[in-house]
Amino acid sequence: MKFSEVIQKLDVSFHSLASNCDLDPEITGLAPIDDAPPGTLSYIEGGKFAAMVNETTASALILPPDEQLQQQAIERGIAWLADAEPRLLFAKAIALFYKPFRPDVGIHPSAVIHPSVQIGRDIYVGPNVVIQAGVKLGNEVCIHPNVVIYPRAEIGDRTTLHANCTIHERSKIGANCVIHSGAVIGAEGFGFVPTKSGWFKMEQSGCAVLEDGVEIGCNSTIDRPAVGETRIAQNTKIDNLVQIGHGCQIGSNCALAAQVGLAGGVKVGNNVLLAGQVGIANQAQIGDGAIATAKSGIHNDVEPGTIVSGIPAVSHKIFLKASAIYSRLPEMYQFFRQMKRHSNEN
Amino acid sequence: MKFSEVIQKLDVSFHSLASNCDLDPEITGLAPIDDAPPGTLSYIEGGKFAAMVNETTASALILPPDEQLQQQAIERGIAWLADAEPRLLFAKAIALFYKPFRPDVGIHPSAVIHPSVQIGRDIYVGPNVVIQAGVKLGNEVCIHPNVVIYPRAEIGDRTTLHANCTIHERSKIGANCVIHSGAVIGAEGFGFVPTKSGWFKMEQSGCAVLEDGVEIGCNSTIDRPAVGETRIAQNTKIDNLVQIGHGCQIGSNCALAAQVGLAGGVKVGNNVLLAGQVGIANQAQIGDGAIATAKSGIHNDVEPGTIVSGIPAVSHKIFLKASAIYSRLPEMYQFFRQMKRHSNEN
Amino acid sequence: MKFSEVIQKLDVSFHSLASNCDLDPEITGLAPIDDAPPGTLSYIEGGKFAAMVNETTASALILPPDEQLQQQAIERGIAWLADAEPRLLFAKAIALFYKPFRPDVGIHPSAVIHPSVQIGRDIYVGPNVVIQAGVKLGNEVCIHPNVVIYPRAEIGDRTTLHANCTIHERSKIGANCVIHSGAVIGAEGFGFVPTKSGWFKMEQSGCAVLEDGVEIGCNSTIDRPAVGETRIAQNTKIDNLVQIGHGCQIGSNCALAAQVGLAGGVKVGNNVLLAGQVGIANQAQIGDGAIATAKSGIHNDVEPGTIVSGIPAVSHKIFLKASAIYSRLPEMYQFFRQMKRHSNEN
């Protein structure tokens, strides 16, 4: 596809062809900036990658609205198009060149589907899929090979279940969700009550509910509770190897990075960002728009709109200051000992 | 079921009907206290949930032996029953209303079972299960769809293997165990010896042993060792996404929360509690009854009955004090600099 | 096998038979030092295990070149062989007694293999395996039951895929690799761009590449990027439950312990060791030969050959000193308050 065609399809008005430059290379694909062969389109968001404009062998670049960078590109014979959000535009450009794999509609004969299952139109069910009694599948559902769905689960329209994931009994998965390989939705929460004669198992009679547009990463686990629901609201995106304990309530439009762990009954507001390996203790409440940086350990409630860090988590600002001093503790301690000795002597 | 019948079945002697209150609502199910529709039974353990007695729309409550709470319930028209362990009683109440899904006895024709497999009576084997040579299955074993069992593993009576879990060669799983979806039992430990020409793979000839009553959470991994056993003793419960390295020995009645990781050769005593995301280094020994709070990083042995926290883990008491001061480090540092400058000047 | 035969097969010249001791026990197997029945061979690397030579019931020991230990062994009637690397020699000894399970060549009739798949010679494909269009399988590939391979993936010679793992579209897996149960290779990276109307999904058009000799542990997840490759170079070994984000580049001969998490675009050099539960933030670069101790949280680049620890990670030396002082913070703080009060008064 010609660069001019890319510009047209992305509907961008600010680009090198409009800036007295007649470069119109053939774009054969997209590539990362540090490994972009000739013929590819790449992008630069600015910051430490800005210098890459002088090194890249890409034929075209998506740039921020930075005239100097644009000029540098032209000088190196690189066509450009500019946008305030280069990464978003790049995402749209990928969609011009790449169509994700999607199997053809149809039910493989090796799938084992209980006769009571309700099936929407235009669905795909791959080989060795097992769908048990009372399950409901919406329209255009796509179920990859070796998925298992326990009884009475519901899968909404256009939802994709990737290979080897497991959906447990009574789970409700909305429309346009993606459950990645190996994820387990709605299994029993970890409910054991200590007694003198050992653990008493609390049966987990509740269910897991994923609203529309939720994605769950590979090998993540979303438990169901003893009573009530574990609920993940609309358009929340969860990365790989994440644990969501029984009875958690997660708001909409959140993003939870890999290996995050939420204990039982945690309440997370809307638009919350939890970075990698964050842990949140039982029953804690995280306000709307809050951010927890990587590896934070949260034991108490977090106010809306705040950023927290550390174990136990404190305000990110304080964490930055305190952790910068951490390395100086030995020096401080030595001085403290001197002072103390001195003060004891006096 | 009438409230009076619930009381009778749970065999509780302390309740509102016995306290001059004739409320006997129909109980249709159980619910969490903050989302309990009329007709449901819920529970309050006390603490920060006590205030919920004034807000809940539950028709009946399990309460602690707290007369004031009981009086409040009555005033709001809520029947109650009381017990020193409300959560345990609630667990028993769930069992009155909920019967966990259990497939009917039988072996699905799509299961691939080696002719040498020994099979107990009244077992369930779901679709697409693969059971390899020399495996022994006890009575009433329940093997959900798409489980794979490698050669010569043993599964004890009444043990359940959930969909998509994998049991590796020579694993010994006792009676009344539950292995949740995606868990992997007895795979090769991570045994690579560094040499000048790269990693030398140490074959893992040992096996994983789970004694009776052990539960392993979804996507958890229990490795087998080079020689000897990785052993998890009776009634220990392990949550999701937990890693148990090769050669670990875990005592009985422990609880390991989600995302805990044990390196190789760790020895854990009986009745140990490891909270979420705790990590324990190679060969460390954890004494009976010890507790590690969430995210602790344990490098050294932990004495029986102690509580540890932090990275590296120290006494929980000290951790609480020290971490409370962490936020004040900037202030301390500033003062330290002043003092130091002052002391240098003198 | 006689002890003398073990010595001969391992080609060791330094042993008890050569040291005027005629002990030549029958060796029936190998065992860990603290649970070694008579008839077994075990090993001691020194350090805290050295005392075990006085307690073990093993019939033979691999020892370090330590004459005192060797003398102690003889006095207890234990044959020994010695090497500067006892663990490596023990690994070689295991290989004399243990042959890992390997299924016979053949393709199970229940496997679902697309007609376009290219198949090498002498491969094993287990029951219920699903291999989709355009996949290439090398010679002597071993694919255990219930594995799913998405379209156009490539699996090199002698590579083993364990039960229930999933290989996503276009992944390239080299020769002599091992992918353990439940691992997911080449699934979509976590690519969501924030916009005013919510998350915009960035399609992940790249692929995951594993070079020769790579091992990926159980339930680990290796994501593919939006463009370009996620690459793991030769002979790097990755343990269980590890997350490798989209676009990471990992060098050769690294070892990543369990539950390590790498965010997107991380660059790891050769011969790097990441201990358990380490986390590395987006785009960070880790130099050749660097080591991160357990639970480190790395936000910035790490110099080659250095050891880092802590959250955020600092030099291991500094971490050791600073963390030793952590417990004294309360004492320091109290003194600081006194001093401050005193200084305010003056």
Automatic annotation (TrEMBL), chains A, B, C:
Pfam entry (one): LpxD
Keywords of the record: Acyltransferase, Lipid A biosynthesis, Lipid biosynthesis, Lipid metabolism, Repeat, Transferase
Domain UDP-3-O-[3-hydroxymyristoyl] glucosamine N-acyltransferase non-repeat region: residue ranges: 24-96
Reactions the enzyme catalyzes: a UDP-3-O-[(3R)-3-hydroxyacyl]-alpha-D-glucosamine + a (3R)-hydroxyacyl-[ACP] = a UDP-2-N,3-O-bis[(3R)-3-hydroxyacyl]-alpha-D-glucosamine + holo-[ACP] + H(+)
Residues annotated as the enzyme's active site: H246
Pathway this chain belongs to: Bacterial outer membrane biogenesis; LPS lipid A biosynthesis
Enzyme class: transferase
Entry annotated with the keyword rRNA-binding: no
EC code: 2.3.1.191
One of the record's GO molecular function terms: UDP-3-O-[(3R)-3-hydroxyacyl]-glucosamine N-acyltransferase activity
Calcium recorded as keyword: no
Top-rank taxon, per record: Bacteria
Known function: Catalyzes the N-acylation of UDP-3-O-acylglucosamine using 3-hydroxyacyl-ACP as the acyl donor. Is involved in the biosynthesis of lipid A, a phosphorylated glycolipid that anchors the lipopolysaccharide to the outer membrane of the cell.
Family: Belongs to the transferase hexapeptide repeat family. LpxD subfamily.
Subunit structure: Homotrimer.
Protein name: UDP-3-O-acylglucosamine N-acyltransferase
